[in-house]
Amino acid sequence: MASARISARDLAQIAVFAALIAALTLPGAIPTGALGLPITLQTLGVLLAGAIIGPKKGTLAVVVYVALGAIGLPIYAGGTGGLGILFGPTGGFLFGFILCAFVVGWLTARLLPRYPFWPALGLTAVGGILSVYLIGIPWLAVTTGTPIGAVALGMVAFLPGDLIKVLVTVSVAKAVHRAWPGLITPRPWGRRRDGSSTDATTAAVDA
């Protein structure tokens, strides 16, 4: 059985991606749409964390980022931080980032070692974007007293930017996994707990 302990290398990767997410927030936020929600590059960092270092380390990197912002470091959108932001109207998107990194990392592990571009693009788009919105939209609706349908409609304006971030993520992740294989342990579809494959497709991917 593989060790569940986190190595020094793992910790370094987690720290690097937590810092990357924070750094991608620094260029600033642009309020857009009727709800005035800010567009930042945070989501790009979250997607990259899941797609490059996987579900466990990627999720931990986002948790570290969210926790550092919660204690007051000005690393959230707009140079903000603190529990008031974390549990405020946009806090659901921050919690959605955690789910996003896990889902994208989980899906990426099942596309490796080949990591085909178009399947990766589709799964990362659906899994990553939906994960953020799944928590962020209801949270925003409840905290602002806005009908959830109106909030969901307002999110449509953000989809083009989100899709561009997904495209960048998959392009970068494909190059990284080609250059440095082994950052994420492949978990092909249909693999049982004992490591055996449930179908011929899985065997072909492993070969």
Descriptors for this entry?
207 residues, mainly alpha, Arp2/3 complex 21 kDa subunit ARPC3, two-stranded antiparallel ribbon
**Quaternary state, please?**
single chain
What is the name of the CATH architecture? Orthogonal Bundle
In the CATH hierarchy, the third-tier topology is known as Arp2/3 complex 21 kDa subunit ARPC3
Number of helices: 8
Which ranges are low-confidence, i.e. pLDDT below 50, for 5 or more consecutive residues? 198-207
Shape: globular
- Main beta sheet: 2 strands, antiparallel
For the record, give the distance between the C-alpha atoms at the N and C termini, rounded to a whole number: 21 Å
User: In which order are the strands of the major sheet placed?
Assistant: 1-2
Question: What's the CATH C level?
Answer: Mainly Alpha
Q: What is the N-to-C order of secondary-structure elements (H for helix, E for strand)?
A: HEEHHHHHHH
User: Hey, roughly how much beta strand do the residues contain?
Assistant: under 5%
Provide the residue-averaged pLDDT.
Answer: 87
Number of E-type strands: 2
